[in-house]
Amino acid sequence: MLRVAVIGGGVGGSLIGSLLHDAGHDVTLFDIKDKYFKPCGDIVPNVYRPPFPWRVEYEIKDFAFYLDGERVYDVSYRSPKWLTINKSEWINSMRAKLRQMVGNEKPKLDNYDVVLDSRGPYPMDREVVYTTRVIMKVENFNPEAILEFNTRLTGFYWIFPAGEGLLNVGAGFLEDKNSRKLLLEYLRERFTKYEILDIRGAPISIGKVAKKEGRIGEARGLVFPLSGEGIRPSAISAEIAFGALNKGKPLEQELRKGLSTIESRISIQSLLLNWYRSSNISMRRTMLRHFLKSEILIDAFLEDKLDFQGIKESMELIKSGGIST
Ligand SMILES: Cc1cc2nc3c(=O)[nH]c(=O)nc-3n(C[C@H](O)[C@H](O)[C@H](O)COP(=O)(O)OP(=O)(O)OC[C@H]3O[C@@H](n4cnc5c(N)ncnc54)[C@H](O)[C@@H]3O)c2cc1C
């Protein structure tokens, strides 16, 4: 039996804590809050099943992309491409099993065999984009997931179905940290009648982290910088770390091996992001127009698999009639 301290009870921390606890290890979870509070888009591509199931609030098949106010591409899939999950409920149900130490005091970690850092973006040793999202009620509910690019800035607005009649709408741009103001202006322009139920902001990691050892999830830099997807990579890193610790295998070696595809896909997105942000507006427009014309690249983007293998899978899906437009 291992004595394990997990710092941060988000996706990665609560999942590895739960897995270790169920396998008979002694786990203590340290977090600054007693319940998960971080805002999210709550979207996961429909290609991953976690060891403890989450509640699906909405299945998304329809997507639309806007470029500088113009609708440039839409697509409908025959089966759900993305899922809106109840992320907080999922995390809190895993945390409920664990011994939790809550507060801002620095934890005493001398008596543990293993200490895992799963503080998400909060080590703050990497570049981040400041994002804000609202959960809101609307009368004219549209089941499409929308991504809207404004080429003056690097980032996007999103509109995701969060449940029947509910939307999760957010904004995050590299050049403007005031995502709350940008989002509220966007809502006023885009919607006539809406009621905001919750508004919250948080950073998303987009840059290389200073340190990976002993870390899982976003703390380790496991976020796709073009999409902001971090739930699935964090969960996968927790599963790999659990496998290593439970079988007494070397943790870092197992994490490096098991995460190699995700990490190389993150690197490809980092290159594309750097290319985009260093381009002028007309170049950005040209790049996005080309990208948004390709149903194969869009499909690969929706599952964050912009590498040779991923693009091949997208070609196969489209060839076999996976989309209906
Ligand atoms: C607005 C927004 C929208 C997003 N949308 C999506 C999306 O739709 N799909 C997707 O896949 N990803 C999305 N992400 C990214 C995703 O939320 C994260 O990548 C993912 O939650 C990372 O999981 P994690 O366990 O590594 O860290 P987190 O979920 O960030 O959890 C970190 C935990 O550490 C705790 N903590 C912080 N500081 C300390 C400390 N000093 N000591 C102890 N504990 C601490 C926090 O309270 C928190 O519980 C979004 C992020 C944001 C901000």
From TrEMBL:
InterPro entries: FAD/NAD-bd_sf, Geranylgeranyl_reductase
Entry superkingdom: Archaea
Membrane-spanning residues: none
PANTHER family: GERANYLGERANYL DIPHOSPHATE REDUCTASE (PTHR42685), HYDROGENASE, PUTATIVE-RELATED (PTHR42685:SF20)
UniProt protein name: NAD(P)/FAD-dependent oxidoreductase
Species this chain originates from: Metallosphaera prunae
